Amino acid sequence: MPQASNEQPMPTAEPNILKRLYAFFLPENLYKTDVSLSSNEKLVATRLYLGLLAVSIVILFVLTASSSQTRSITVDSPSISQFDFLSARYPLTLSCLCSQVTIPYNTFLSFAPEYHQVCSSKFISESWISSMFSINTTNYSPLDFRTSASSQFETLALLCTMVSEFVSSAVQVFTNQQLISSRTLSRSAFDAQLMSLVQQLQTTTVIDITSMDQFVSLSIDNNQLVSALHTNYFIYSVPGSRLYITYSGVYIPIHYSLPLDPTTFCGCASTYKCIYPSGFFNNWTLEYPFYYFIPDPPPVFSVPGFFAGCIPRYSISQSTMECFYNSTCLNQIQALMGDTSSRRPLNDTIQSHFKPNATIESMFAELFIEGWHDTRNFTAYFNTCNPKSCSYTYEKRFYVIYVFVTLFGLIGGLTVVLHLFAKFFVQHFIRRVRSMNCCQPVTRQEVLAVNSEKLSECT
């Protein structure tokens, strides 16, 4: 017959562990050794302490977690990709010190100015200028294209050459200067600073070269220089004497009507800016008063956009190259000049911000430049700057390590304060409330009620 087993199931340790944890975190009495409190007061003080501690910890946790902390980070020998990332993410606080404080502009900046096609065309070549020259120049009317054309195109060639050399020199001087910056510029700051400097270079170059040209023009005007082309002055010899009389050339208005009004005339003695549309005047004779340049007989062909004037320098500046974009117009000029060479007109399909009817003066004011084509190399700048380290700061909320370090740092002092406060509160406020309840006066009705209860118990 089988015997009943006397083995009892092993008691689980889980309830004991939970009790210990509960007793550790929620002890029943934290004031066991305090003889100044009664047993009931010790329990009240313990509950008060634990409640205040829990509320305080929650408040401290919320405040600490919601506050922002400033962190400072340093990156040694950053690459250009790291720098771009950091400058985009921390643009206000990123700081990288350059190993080389001064960097020449030519290290990371270059120019390739593109000029208007006229400055590289055949129309400023020696062969074209020579084909426009005639030994009988002074036999033509001062208004005739053949009188001034050679000098005008030679002046245009000089303007193109002067501009090219001046710009090249200005660019060289500029790029040899130093960029001084102890901190590495971001790409956006780099581009903005260089754009401003390039615009400054363009502006100062235009001002310098136009000021020099104005000085030359004013010198010619103020010194009353006589043109060998007889376009501003005539020197007339008095027959039978050694005397010479100088007459100033007078240009009539472009849109004139007969009879002529002398008040509308433009005299080269007063200003060098007198001009008149240029053309081919055949059968022109020198008649008194020969210093009045009257288009009579009218021209056999007027050159569109071209002007004659007191001096070739000013008349070419008021002229345009529109005729030289047109093969028919160009062929007509060559035929009248006796030029049999094959010449191509300017290409009107080339992109240009100068229109075909733009004056030479307006193109010169922009240095004949279609584009400066500056090239900025940020990589070359960064490699030359060569920052050894970059540092930046940023704000972060709910930084776990900071939250727990702050809580553990405060909780020690907080427990001591709350422990004393709970005891103080029980001793002074709880006892006072109880004493007030115990010491209330007893009414006569209450005494009679008690006595009656005692009598009823005895019977």
Task: Set down the secondary structure blueprint.
Elements lengths: L13 H12 L13 H28 L1 E9 L3 H10 L5 E2 L5 E3 L4 E3 L2 E2 L10 H6 L13 H31 L2 E3 L6 H36 L10 E5 L6 E5 L1 E2 L14 E2 L7 E6 L11 E2 L7 E9 L2 H6 L9 H11 L22 H6 L3 E3 L2 E3 L1 H8 L3 E9 L2 H39 L5 H15 L1
Parallel strand pairs: 9-12
Antiparallel strand pairs: 1-16, 2-16, 3-6, 4-15, 5-14, 7-8, 9-10, 11-13
Helix pairs in contact: 2-11
Describe the structure.
- This protein has helices spanning 14-25, 39-66, 80-89, 126-131, 145-175, 187-222, 312-317, 327-337, 360-365, 378-385, 400-438, 444-458; strands at 68-76, 95-96, 102-104, 109-111, 114-115, 178-180, 233-237, 244-248, 250-251, 266-267, 275-280, 292-293, 301-309, 369-371, 374-376, 389-397.
- The protein is an alpha+beta fold.
- It folds into 2 domains: 39-94 and 386-421, no CATH class; 102-383, no CATH class.
- The strands form 7 sheets. Strands 1-16-2 form a 3-stranded antiparallel β-sheet. A 3-stranded mixed β-sheet has the order 10-9-12, with no helix packed on it. Strands 3-6 form a two-stranded antiparallel ribbon.
- The longest helix is centred in the C-terminal third of the chain and has 39 residues, at 400-438.
- The protein is rod-shaped, with a radius of gyration of 51 Å.
